[in-house]
Amino acid sequence: MGPRLLLVPLGCVALLLPPPGAAEFSPSLDSDFTFTLPAGRKECFYQPMRKEASLELEYQVLDGAGLDVDFHLLSPKGETLVFDERKSDGVHTVETEDGDYMFCFDNTFSTISEKVIFFELILDNMGEDGQDEEDWKKYVTGTDLLDMKLEDILESINSVKARLSKSVQIQTLLRAFEARDRNIQESNFDRVNFWSMVNLGVMVVVSAVQVYMLKSLFEDKRKSRT
């Protein structure tokens, strides 16, 4: 079975086994996910890992007041490997052992604003590439007459695959940056419009007061004698 990533509600943090019918990621070694974290809430995820593998996790806060969130990464033994407090993004890589790694996004410090969070997982040395190589070696027999060995073809294909995976990863991160920048621009646009209307209202009120005061200066307040 390929690596899977499970969303676990805060009240079920102690459960390591996936519930029936739980959604799973495809068995890809590069997975990304975007979700909304409500105000005052904490969401945790589990990722099963193998020994001597590598887990790289990158996250970004795309939208929400302050663009910040608390991040925790715990080992299968419950040890805190990473703790980020009130940060907008982060990149962390750890060498893993057998077991389920838990990482949490905490928005309990915010009582009003929800956060839109994007994160990406990159898993290395999970054993699938080795299996692919063994499958290729079954076809190596009888290739002495070929000018190019199948091992060379396999090496070239793996190189192209790695470059394509890196390109997909970079494009995904660029889309995340674009989404965050767009949200910031829209927020700034709304603020500019709001304060422009406030300034316009103040100018109208000040103009009316000035006209009234000028008129009062030129009024003849002396009462006509009869």
Structure description:
The chain is an alpha+beta fold and 226 residues long. The chain has 2 domains: 26-126, GOLD domain (Jelly Rolls), CATH 2.60.120.680; 155-219. 35% of the residues lie in helices and 30% in strands. A 5-stranded antiparallel beta sheet has the order 1-3-8-5-6, with no helix packed on it. Strand 5 (69-74) and strand 6 (80-87) form a beta hairpin. The radius of gyration is 30 Å and the shape is elongated. 14% of the residues are buried. Residues 1-28 have low confidence and may be disordered.
Q: What order do the helices and strands come in, and which of them pair?
A:
Blueprint: E1 6-8, E2 30-37, E3 42-49, E4 54-63, E5 69-74, E6 80-87, E7 89-95, E8 99-106, E9 115-124, H1 128-137, H2 150-218
Antiparallel strand pairs: 1-3, 2-9, 3-8, 4-7, 4-9, 5-6, 5-8
Structure summary:
With 226 residues, the chain is α+β, with helices and mostly antiparallel strands. It has helices spanning 128-137, 150-218, and strands at 6-8, 30-37, 42-49, 54-63, 69-74, 80-87, 89-95, 99-106, 115-124. It contains 2 helices and 9 strands, in the order βββββββββαα.
Question: What labels would you give this structure?
Answer:
2 domains; Jelly Rolls; 9 strands; single chain; 226 residues; 2 helices; membrane; four-stranded antiparallel β-sheet; alpha+beta; five-stranded antiparallel β-sheet; elongated
